[in-house]
Design goal:
mainly beta, four-stranded antiparallel sheet, 10 strands, globular
C-alpha cells in the first residue's frame, strides 16, 4: 500500500485548505474502511505531531486544532481528507498521512504555508 498526500499550498491566515490522502497499490482497498488513519504535521525544526485520526467510528484531534479541522474518509475512493479552516501561521508545516497503528514508510507529505 502506498499513501499519497496532496492539496497543500499557500494560503492567508483565516483561509482554508483541504488535504487528501489517497491509498493505492495491491490490497489498498482491503480493510480501508476500518483502518485507523491519521494526519501528522512537522514544522521546520520541530518534531512530527499528530493532527487528527479517524477510526471506523470515531475521530480525534490534537488539542491545537480546537474545532478548526475535520478529518473524513471516502472508502470508495480510498481517500482520507483533512479539511482545515481558520488557518493560522503556526499551522505552517509539512503534512503527512499514514496508518496509525501500522505506519507505512513515510511519504513526501504536502506543504502547507499560512501567511500572516
Amino acid at each position: 500500500v502506498q499513501l499519497q498526500a496532496s492539496g497543500g499550498g499557500l494560503v492567508q491566515a483565516g483561509g482554508s485548505l483541504t488535504l487528501s490522502c489517497a491509498a493505492s497499490g495491491p490490497n489498498s482497498g482491503v480493510n480501508f474502511h476500518i483502518t485507523t488513519m491519521a494526519w501528522y504535521r512537522q514544522a521546520s525544526g520541530k518534531e512530527r505531531e499528530l493532527v487528527a485520526l479517524i477510526t471506523s467510528d470515531d475521530t480525534r484531534y490534537g488539542a491545537f486544532v480546537k474545532g478548526r479541522f475535520t478529518i473524513s474518509r471516502d472508502t470508495a475512493k480510498k481517500t482520507v481528507y483533512l479539511q482545515m479552516n481558520s488557518l493560522k501561521p503556526e499551522d505552517t508545516a509539512l503534512y503527512f498521512c499514514n496508518q496509525f497503528y501500522r505506519p507505512l514508510p513515510w511519504g513526501r507529505g504536502t506543504q502547507v504555508t499560512v501567511s500572516s
